[in-house]
């Protein structure tokens, strides 16, 4: 079994393959996530708003664009923090995955890649990467949840906290504010659902992507290249969204609760309250929005990552 996911015959041995792969994942993750920040911001704002006020998410997005504009309303909120968080979480899972997968296959003495190994090799680095970056994701979520236009007096004139000043103005302000009021534990508020969400996203991503590539290449239906990468990315987005959606909305509600003036005793209390008041379908509320954000991100991320791997001498992910 070859290490680092390098395709046979495409490149020779390179030095520091792990560092190169980690760099590829970190760079691509941050660039692509920042590019699609408007979709992420829209998802967060939709999940925490009173949806009865709007006919649909399309109506909601049009309202934001009319009142706030694309840049102020959807692109700017949480942009830098989102990029930093993605560089850690995305870089970690993409950097570790092929090495962990190949190591597991060798340990289990499998001759071929098993879907279960793909799933598990995506789960662990996904959970670890999101745990490390929990403070960044929390601040990003809270900034986006209360996004709106701020007037000269520092008061929000639009958004869910209209009439109040923002609770978090920037990354540094968020870190200091949360630490001073809630301690170190406050910075890791929502770490459990975030870890599970991250693990589910990562396992769905690599199971969908790696399995699709393996099957298409193995049956001779498609050659390894951009077209196959785009197709596999779509499968990855579907599984990733479906696995992670329940934990995504729980994480959003729980982490945004202090900003919205809501108190939950724990993550389980948050989930139970949601189920009692809104029904079990609440856990897949916003699935289409989540998928519409994840699909273009993955469709750009994975082909981009494959090309950067080639530039760094690693070849396509095998």
Q: What are the SSEs and their pairings?
A:
Layout: H1 17-35, H2 37-48, H3 57-68, H4 70-75, H5 79-108, H6 115-132, H7 134-145, H8 171-187, H9 191-218, H10 226-260, H11 267-278, H12 287-311
Helix pairs in contact: 1-5, 1-12, 2-12, 5-6, 5-7, 6-9, 7-8, 7-10, 9-10, 10-11, 10-12
End-to-end distance: 11 Å
Q: Report the strand count.
A: 0
**Beta fraction of the residues?**
under 5%
Which geometry do the CA atoms define?
globular
The overall pLDDT average reads 91
The biggest beta sheet reads: none
- Helical/strand content category: mainly alpha
**Element string (H = helix, E = strand):** HHHHHHHHHHHH
The level of helicity is over 70%
Q: How many helical elements? A: 12
Low-confidence stretches: none
CA gyration radius, whole angstroms: 20 Å
Describe the structure.
With 318 residues, this protein is mainly α. It has helices spanning 17-35, 37-48, 57-68, 70-75, 79-108, 115-132, 134-145, 171-187, 191-218, 226-260, 267-278, 287-311.
In short:
The protein has 318 residues and is an all-alpha fold. It is built from twelve helices and no strands. It has helices spanning 17-35, 37-48, 57-68, 70-75, 79-108, 115-132, 134-145, 171-187, 191-218, 226-260, 267-278, 287-311.
Which features would summarize this protein structure in a list?
318 residues, globular
